[in-house]
Amino acid sequence: MSITIASPLPNSPPSSPSRQITVVDVYDLAASIGKDFELLIDQYGKESIHNLMPKVISALETLEAFANVNEKENAQIIDLQKTIECLEKEKQLRMQDKLRLEKDIVEVEESFKKEIDELWSMIRNLQGENKNLKNRLTTAKNEEITSNETAPVNDGEYQMIVDLKNVSIRQKDQKIKELQHDVEQSSSEVENLQNSIEKLIRQNKELLRKNGSLQKQGRILIQERNDLTKRVQQTEEDNFELRRILNDTSRACKDLEAQKNQLRDGDDVPRFTLAELREVLQEKNILKARVMELEEQLDFYRGKSTTSESQKDDELSNEECVVYGPINREPEEKLYPWKYQRKESGVRRFFRNLVTFNSSGFASPRRDSTSNNASTS
Fold this sequence. Notes:
Keywords: Coiled coil, Protein transport, Transport. This protein is an all-alpha fold. 74% of the residues lie in helices and 2% in strands. It has helices at 23-44, 52-150, 155-265, 274-315, 332-335, and strands at 355-357, 363-365. The chain has a two-stranded antiparallel ribbon with strand order 1-2.
């Protein structure tokens, strides 16, 4: 009777009771069930739990496996949540910096627009004053002409009119020069601002280019890590196959030695020649050397993969994470059969004093032990 442990349902809600079960809870449940079995043995004998014990142990082992998977998944979920929080914080900081920069640019543009509008208003006012002065001069000239025609003009009055005219011309020229200077200064500031904006745009393009190159390097590193992982898996598979062959060869050598000893004890007629035995031993030594070589390669690839992962994490710590889609892969039981060999679970320890376990994993009640020795750890 073999039980295949299935993984938890992926669509089960995170708040379901099965997500809250831990290995300690399973062990407590096993201890309480062990005590109940002790009472049943005391009252009805060991034959009463002969058929029930394997089913209970299998169910508890399945529950223990589910609890282990839940703990691993919860740890992974916590790590992923922390990573998501860090990425969201980085994204918010970048958005804040971008908004701040845009706000500063808008404020600078508005300030320059206001200054330009003020300068244009000053120019319009000066133009209006210039027109008024021209009108006054024309009226003054007309009045002067009429006054000259009607009455003679004094030299003092004429000189005063000329002086006023010269003063107005000088003031006009001075204001025009000041306005031209202000316009030139504002235009130079606008040019400087445009140059700074262009510089920021170039820097942004350069940063985008560097970001793209870093993402390419990250993809290359991820591809190299995947290649190294595949090599390590292939090496592990070869190592497992060579170990199996070595075990078969060792078993064959032991059988040959046993047969040789039997033949020596019996009729002393050898069934294998010495050359065949030497060939088998030589093949065994070659396989051992190959296994050692593959183990060294496996250690080397594991160290290289860990160093490449650390370098990749250091380089991509300030970059956005590249997310790839899900990839269908072979089940773990098929890729790593040596990792999924049947091992003794922690649940069986609670029933060790009540039952005995054979090589196939089944449980059978002990007939030679007394019920007083049954205990739960």
